[in-house]
């Protein structure tokens, strides 16, 4: 009997250990459950609904939409307005990303220079980062005032004799795309500047000293030391900025609204107008799905790059 009692007492804790182990296994999933539910509710489900809308005609406004399959995609992909918006988006994006990289690199190298005193360096850092602090709406209002025919920029250009008459930069088809691109460049370069400045501060000064000993000048040091050290940062930031710029909406909508005559029509404003101006929700959903597909391609490259850096 005594041996049986000892065996029972020895076997009793086993179910508790099993219960405790099961709880420990479930605990991580319970912790991430709220985040998973939010992602499902705010991202996965809406994306699935939009994809579904793109396969039907007369959705939202019609209680009995008609399934049309890929017909909406054929209509959008053969639309001159869509390709016009795509072309504007391409020009706007490529010019913005390249300018962000060049200006951000130039300012980062200037602020990282040892020849500049500490106090002026701090002042310039505060000044150069200001565009990144403003929201897109504030930037749009500010530049609309500056580029107004009676604004500061036209006053300076006419005073210097660069132009004879005031130019409506945002109201002329030939200058509107250039104007919004300049605005986006001005508001976005601090992101590159800050990131590249952090990268430059992590580059060992011994590498530059060794390059100088070998007789390398400024440009040779830049090509052989600076660029290789910053290449991972530049690549990741370029892909990230590419995603952000292609989806720029607030700045365009608050400055030109996609006009004049579609000169600044982007894919974002094109999709918005289809949905809320023309009430063509099926076509708007189709356009949004195409933009999502293009963004996913860029996102895949970005994630793969991040994994390579982590390894």
How would you characterize this protein structure?
The chain is mostly helical and 311 residues long. The chain has a single domain (71-310), classed as Orthogonal Bundle (MetI-like fold). Helix content is 77%, strand content 1%. It is built from 14 helices and 2 strands; from the N terminus they run ααββαααααααααααα. Strands 1-2 form a two-stranded antiparallel sheet. Strand 1 and strand 2 form a beta hairpin. The radius of gyration is 28 Å and the shape is globular. The mean pLDDT is 87.
User: What is the H-and-E element order?
Assistant: HHEEHHHHHHHHHHHH
Tell me, rounded to a whole number, the average pLDDT. Answer: 87
Q: Compute the gyration radius: what is it?
A: 28 Å
The total number of structural domains is 1
Sheet with most strands? 2 strands, antiparallel
DSSP helix count?
Answer: 14
End-to-end distance: 61 Å
**Overall geometry:** globular
What is the CATH homologous superfamily assignment?
A: MetI-like
The CATH topology label is MetI-like fold
Strand order of the largest sheet: 1-2
Q: Class in CATH? A: Mainly Alpha
- The number of strands is 2
Helix content bin: over 70%
CATH architectural type: Orthogonal Bundle
* Fraction in beta strands: under 5%
Helix/strand/pairing class, anyone? Answer: mainly alpha
Low-confidence stretches: none
Subcellular location: Cell membrane
Family: Belongs to the binding-protein-dependent transport system permease family.
Transmembrane segments: 29-56, 90-111, 123-146, 166-186, 238-261, 281-303
Membrane topology: Multi-pass membrane protein
């Amino acid at each position: 009997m005594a041996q049986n009692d000892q065996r029972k007492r020895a076997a009793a804790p086993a179910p508790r250990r099993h219960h405790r182990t099961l709880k420990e296994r479930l605990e991580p999933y319970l912790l991430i459950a709220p985040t998973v539910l939010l992602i499902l509710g705010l991202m996965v489900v809406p994306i699935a609904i939009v994809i579904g809308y793109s396969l039907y005609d007369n959705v939202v406004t019609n209680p009995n939409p008609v399934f049309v399959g890929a017909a909406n995609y054929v209509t959008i992909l053969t639309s001159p307005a869509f390709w016009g918006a795509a072309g504007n988006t391409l020009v706007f994006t490529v010019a913005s990303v390249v300018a962000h990289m060049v200006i951000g690199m130039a300012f980062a190298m200037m602020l990282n220079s040892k020849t500049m005193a500490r106090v002026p360096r701090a002042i310039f850092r505060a000044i150069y980062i200001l565009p990144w602090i403003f929201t897109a709406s504030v930037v749009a209002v500010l530049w609309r005032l500056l580029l107004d025919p009676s604004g500061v920029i036209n006053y300076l250009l006419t005073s210097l004799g660069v132009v004879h008459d005031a130019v409506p930069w945002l109201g002329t088809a030939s200058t509107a795309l250039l104007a919004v691109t300049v605005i986006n460049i001005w508001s976005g370069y601090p992101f590159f500047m800050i990131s590249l400045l952090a990268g430059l501060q992590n580059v060992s000064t011994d590498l530059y000293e060794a390059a100088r000993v070998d007789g390398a000048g400024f440009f040779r040091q830049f090509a052989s030391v600076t660029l290789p050290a910053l290449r991972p940062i530049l690549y990741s930031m370029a892909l990230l900025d590419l995603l952000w710029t292609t989806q720029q909406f607030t700045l365009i909508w608050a400055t030109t609204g996609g006009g004049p005559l579609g000169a600044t029509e982007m894919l974002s404003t094109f999709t918005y107008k289809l949905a809320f101006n023309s009430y063509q929700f099926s076509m708007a959903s189709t356009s949004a799905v195409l933009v999502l597909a293009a963004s996913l391609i860029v996102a895949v490259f970005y994630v793969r790059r991040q994994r390579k850096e982590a390894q």
